[in-house]
Amino acid sequence: MDDGEGGRGTLNFDEKNFLFEWLVENNKTLTRKNKELLVENLKLRSRAEELEKINFVDPTTGLCNRWYLQPRLEEEFSRARRSGSSLSCLFIDIDDFKACNGRFGHFIGDKVLRDTALLLRAQCRKEDVLVRFGGDEFVILLGSSGQKAARTAAERIRSRLHGHRFTCGGQEISLTVSIGVSTLKKADVASSRDPWELVWTADGAMHVARQKGPGQIHRLDCQGQRDKPTESESAAS
Fold it and tell me: How far is the C-alpha of 33 from the C-alpha of 20, rounded, in Å?
C-alpha cells in the first residue's frame, strides 16, 4: 500500500483485486447461507402446516374439527362486535346413527358421515364455518345471521338431508337430523361472557328437538350474559 497526499494510503492493483475477490466470495457464502435458511424455513412452515392440518382436520369427513372452532368463534365474535351484527349457530345431530352403525357396521357409518359432510358443505355459504363436532354431530356458525336467516338455513338443511338416499350395505335408506338453532342478537354480542355460549345453547336446543321426535328443529336465544351452564342444567336441557 502506497502513501498518497496527506499521508492517506491507496490500494495497489493486487490489493484491490484481492479485496474484490474476497467480497465476491463472501457474497457467495452469504447467498448460500440465505438459501439454506430459506429452505429450512420452508421445511418448518410445511411441517407446521402439516401439524395444523392434523390438529384441525377430521380424518373421517375431511371437515375441520371442534378444535378449529375455538379460534373461529373468537374471530366471528370480534367481527360481529365491529360490525354490530348478529350471530347464529346450528347444532346438527343424525337421528338413530348408532342404529345405523349397529346394523351396517362402522365402515358404512363412516361413509354416511362423509356423505352428510358433503351435503352440509353444499348448503353452507362461503363465509359459514362448518365443523364435525364429534360422533354424528356437526356445527355450523352463521356470521351476520339473525333468527330468521338461521331458521331458514336449518329448514333448508333438514329438507335436503331428509330427501337424500344414503347407500348402506347395498341398500338405500333415508335418515333424519335433529337441529338446534341459537342466535345471539347484535345487542347482546358485546355483553356475552363466553363465545361458546352460542354453541352450547344450540346444543341444548338440539337436545330439545330430539325429545320432540326425529327430524325436528328447535330454537333457543342466547342471553349474552350467562356463564356456561352447570352439569345439572345441561342434563335438564
Answer: 20
